[in-house]
Amino acid sequence: MDLRIQRSVVSNLRTRPQAVEVGPFVAGFDAGTDSPFVNYATPQPGAAITAADVRALIEAFEQAGRKPRLEYVTSSSPGLESLLLAAGFTVEARQEYLICTPQTLNAPPVPSDVILAEARTDPDRADLAAATNEAFGAPAEASDGDVARIRRTQDGGGIALLARAADGERAGGGQAMTPQDRLSEIGGIGVREPFRRRGLGGAITAEIARLLFARGVEIAWLEAGGEDSWRVYERVGFAPAGRRLYISR
């Protein structure tokens, strides 16, 4: 599973508008944002990597005006971390990823006063971005770049799900990346404060997974940011399957 997940991450980065191959690495840059969570690199699994390759990767980030950063499944490049630490990188986080299949999915009920629907228009995409930005503690607004990224994800076969209250107030949402090898990563699950502690996060996650499976995806995967979200994801059918590393310079 580790190898399959890492290959899907590589494939997704290659679909970026500014994808750059740097030796054994693939980097994805986005001119619309300098966020390190959007601009990052990953190694091709099993590739031989040297200190010179790491230096070349740093130079590519510097030329792009972005912070050098990587995300990857640790078992896919077991010697890479020591090379990165020697080049001045610092570990941000070590996290387990979780997977779900059609057989393990356990969809909870959606709160009766909330409607879940795919974002089909740019105003809906802006509402989705604004709601999840607010949920993660950022300004509750959406840029043109946010809208363009969501639209691009959908154009590639990904999913953007918006949760609204019955009166139209945005409640939260989430996304799934463009499927690769019948896998898709679910991310950005966010619920605004007035709608929390009602099971909405789990309902959003489960509905995105259901939509993926209905379109032929075999495995949905994600990462939990803490114990609370971990419990939410386990309840809807996700189980731990491997480890990933986040590291930056």
Automatic annotation (TrEMBL):
Transmembrane intervals: none
Cited PROSITE patterns: GNAT
A family per Pfam: Acetyltransf_1
Keywords noted in UniProt: Transferase
Domain N-acetyltransferase span(s) in chain numbering: 114-249
KW Thylakoid (keyword) present: no
MF terms in GO: acyltransferase activity, transferring groups other than amino-acyl groups
InterPro entries reported for this sequence: Acyl_CoA_acyltransferase, GNAT_dom
Keyword Cytoplasm included in the entry's annotation: no
Listed SUPFAM superfamilies: Acyl-CoA N-acyltransferases (Nat)
Name of this chain's protein: Putative GCN5-related N-acetyltransferase
Species the sequence originates in: Actinoplanes missouriensis (strain ATCC 14538 / DSM 43046 / CBS 188.64 / JCM 3121 / NBRC 102363 / NCIMB 12654 / NRRL B-3342 / UNCC 431)
